Amino acid sequence: MAAKKKAAKKGAKKGGAKKAAKKAAPKKKAKRAPNPAFMKPMKPSASLGAVVGANAMPRSEVTKKIWGYIKKNNLQDAKNRRMINADDKLRPVFGGKNQVSMFEMTKLVNKHLS
Fold first, then answer.
1. In terms of Cα–Cα distance, which of 27, 23, 57 is closest to 40?
2. Nearest 5°: phi and psi at 85?
3. Beta-sheet pairing, 83-85 with 99-101
4. What is the mean pLDDT of residues 36-61?
5. pLDDT at site 57
6. Cβ distance 112 to 48 under 8 Å?
7. Is the pLDDT of residue 9 over 70?
8. Among 2.40.160.60, 1.10.245.10, 3.40.630.30, 3.40.50.1000, what is the CATH number of 38-110?
């Protein structure tokens, strides 16, 4: 019986050594550099400026500020969370629509950046 346990231990040691050898050479991922076009400051239109501010800022910052405004004013539809309900400030940005999808929103907001 003792001979079986020794054989089992040897097998376990061999398997562990193989796994350690495979893990010894991890590949390093190159860090992605942000696209400079996304970081370029854009000037918002007057209607968009009423929501996010009149200063020039990158598109990513505009999107963050719009989502902050939507969440602060509880403008996300209660039943369908993908839809955004427009209030008086957002309606001109959304082209006069009362409700837009979050995917359509980015397209409409880009029209107000120059």
1. 57
2. -85, 130
3. antiparallel
4. 92
5. 95
6. yes
7. no
8. 1.10.245.10
Q: Three-state SS for 114?
A: coil
Segments making up each domain of the chain, as ranges: 38-110
DSSP 81-96: TTEEE--TTTTTTTTT
DSSP string, 26-48: PPPPPPPPPPHHHHS-B-B-HHH
> For the chain, what is the mean pLDDT?
85
Q: Is 9 helix (H, G, I), strand (E, B) or coil?
A: helix
Task: Examine the pLDDT at 46 and tell me if it is beyond 90.
Answer: yes
Rounded Cα–Cα distance for residues 74 and 68 (Å):
10
pTM flag (> 0.85): no
